[in-house]
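[step 3/7] fold_predict: job queued, chain A
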Amino acid sequence: MAQLKFGSAGVTAREIDISGPVSQQPVGVPAGVVGTSLKGPAFVPVTVGNLSDWYAKFGQTDGKKFGPLAVVEWLRNASALTYLRVLGAGDGRKRDTVTGDVTSAGFTVGEQEPDSTGVITSNAYANLGGPLGRTYFLGCFMSESAGSTVFSDAGLQTSATAVPVVRGVLLAASGVIVRMSASLPNVASSAPASNLVATVANAKGSTMGDVVLSQNGIPKQEFIVLLNGHKGTDASKPNVITASFDVTSKSYFAKAFNTDPTQLQSTGYYLYAAWDVHPVLAAVTGSGLLADSFSAGGTAHPGVEPSAFVVTSSLSRNVGSTTVPNYENFRDRFSHAQTPWITSQKFGGSAQNLFRFHTIDDGNGAGSRVKISIENITPSTDPLNKFGSFTVVLRDWTDRDLDKKPIANETYSGVNLDPSSDRYIAKVIGDAHAYFDFDREESSQKLTVEGNYENRSNYIRVEMNTDVENGFVDPSAIPVGFRGIEYLVTSGSAPLPAIDTPVSGAFADANVLKSTVQAPLPLRRKITTSTEWSSTEQVESKFYWGVQFEHPEALLKKNTNTLPNDSLKSFAKYFPNFAVDTLPFAVGDSDAADTFNNNMFSLENIMVVTGTNGLANPNKWADAVYARDGALTAADLAGLGTDSSKVRNFKVEDLTSNKTFAKFTLMLQGGFDGTNLFDADEAAINNAAVAADMNAAAGRGLNEGPNVRTYLKALDIMQNTVNGDIQLLAIPGIRQPIVTDAGILAVESRFDALFLVDLEQQDEFGSDVNADTQLPSVTNTVQVFQDRSVDTSFGASYFPDVLYKDPTGTNLFVPPSVVVLGALALNDAVGHPWFAPAGFTRGALPTAALEPRVRLSQKDMDTLYDNGINPIVHFPGAAQSGTNPQGGLVVWGQKTLQLAASALDRVNVRRLLIEIRRQVRDIAQTIIFEPNRASTLARFSAAVTPRLQRIQALAGLENFKVVIDSSTTTQDDIENNTLRGKIFVQPTKTLEFVSLDFVVANNVNQ
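[step 4/7] structure written:
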């Protein structure tokens, strides 16, 4: 793809905009905010013009994140904002070329986690000294239910022998070993050992467990998981868990197990992913694997059999090889989701890769926000233009309802694969990919833009196969399917171990678990309602082929149930695929992924009934069947009756009169935050996480922790003026000096922005304020700040935090930068940047700002202001009196962090000079490459003077002088291609102190 280049001679400014459609173009110079958000691209500055556009790109506020609230406040009164979202980037350096790991990124399963007190010296839930936690695969033996072909169609089951199927992935806490309860001797404990301190050998391997298949004639599929080593001290977090494999059960394990990663320690484990298999499709049974005496029909085990299992890698924890994945290694930076390649009809027996979609969003859950449907597929009938057309619909993931009520978030109609056409899919949707290239040497890292066409979607971009772009694919090619999705590598001779100490006679083969696989991707089999092959069966043209998002109601009623198949979110979830020196956890984009479970989809696998013209009969789509393995079952052939002789695979020429029925849906996979999801602070990349990185005991430098590096890298991007123009910069809620000092240096380097510094706060006991229950001390907070010796006119700080009502209705304390950004926007809306952003007129905070965290006395205000910290003050009754229509809170100061007393120790003066510099720079751009002669100097001077006169007329300057002539630009300067000038300015002073004498007299003469 074409790659856009950065940098040119002269004064440059560039914005990276992948924001897609907007309702309002940005107006004015943006404020810059660095922070987290629910979605959006990471480490790419995105500029928006209003709040609705920001919500479309980055998601709503959630009552927790400060960055989005700062956006809300700024955009109340401004029309341009640049946001840089941060996610986990590890140490910010390129990944290891040998292992594929990114240092300090993501997590390793079983990393020793601190307890609730933040230390590792004690653990309320598991004994110290136990084995480090591992990744476990929870599964069961399954066989197709009577009449079902769910496994045989996928190529998994060719006889009555059951298949070991992965149903879930469990990540265990350190000190906890996951086992299963069973009656088999020497296979598993019948009760958990809460005081377990096991060897590493005991922490790996497999354990079989009993499944209660039925009780009193009622199907149950119940099993018991034991958390050996977990103390089970909390009744709500037991170490014995009873659950079911039945998706229709109230105790279904995906509902009963812990799905909150921050509860890893207290529960002992976390259910990372779960895959549903509806009981009408397959039953839990050890048929063909267990001896009769151990089956549910055996006298020793009525209704019960050992057909469940929990298994780790065959190797030790956090180790992999060329034949065994390292299942504990999630050490990867943030990533986005993508579809498999969308493919054409077969040419010469093979389908061609055409294009695939990538999410614009990075991070967790990116793959399960939308699903993609391809419809209205129309081959060309023009012999001079063989390119067909089709429609791409981005549907809300949750629209479901059997495709009958699709929620189309975006629709792109009549697109094609002709690079010369205005409807070329890459032109219509966009293929621009803006990203920060971490995989370079650090000195060469930069924002990069690839692609040829601006993104017009808020959700996706297109990646075209280069053969399509270069015209090497047959022009009659149209999208009819997609390649196999990524799958977990669990089967083979090496990845999983043999059964631990199998009981003699119970299992014919101790290596049975080595054929453990994921369940097949659910694909729609028929597009009909009612019972298959019955007189009431009717075609439903609204149904899409491809991925089916609902469970079947019954074996012959696969399209009548609205019960969602939530396990598709597990199919869409991120699994590590970056390993270089070992077998990866997940594999995709390969022939192996295509054949695995026959997951590759194509409309050409639909078996249709032809009419007299030899084409698919439009009236016979009720008889059409998707043949996952390319062959119809005996039941299908029987249902077709005499029409079975007219059955063949769907062909592209059938679209002429059948395109209403020939459409399909696919999903995206992936999206990872790149953080340690088990630590709430690290997952949020908040100030507490940055502070934790500063612990030198972690064995790294003070600026090497992943959270510190994340913000330092973000500031590197924002510091570069080529990446975007900003007038203010804030990192709301990040108070650690290592970051805020870097923020000051960033704006000083830019020389065109003011940094809003959120201060470290201490309580009256000298402890860092980390909780809402701690009240900050003015004295101690000021003392800590004084010790930093900050001296800059490019920064300003405010105190205290403010109780704020989030748009969701949640009340939370927010750092001052959130509301001060709003005050600055108000200042500029009713005045100009050179006005003081303080007081009732321009420093009033909105009604969403409820209370200051500290009610300041006059002494407190004096202490703060004397030390360059601007107070945020509550004036009782101000709002009621009408003096402050915004609310009762007011910014009551406008000092910068400059120590020396001068005009630059005021915010309005610093912003005045920033504004003048920006305007003069814009003028300077117009004369770059002009002849360096007296006439050019005069033209430059003549252009600058009116700008300053306007600022003077608007009360920004008392006086000014522009000197741009031969006295400032010498002959040596001319020889060096340089123009020099001097601009003298006298800022207008602001009124900050009022001194009045009240004179009591006998007579007052008028």
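[step 5/7] annotate
The chain is about 20% helix and 20% strand.
Residues 123-312+491-518 form one domain.
exit 0
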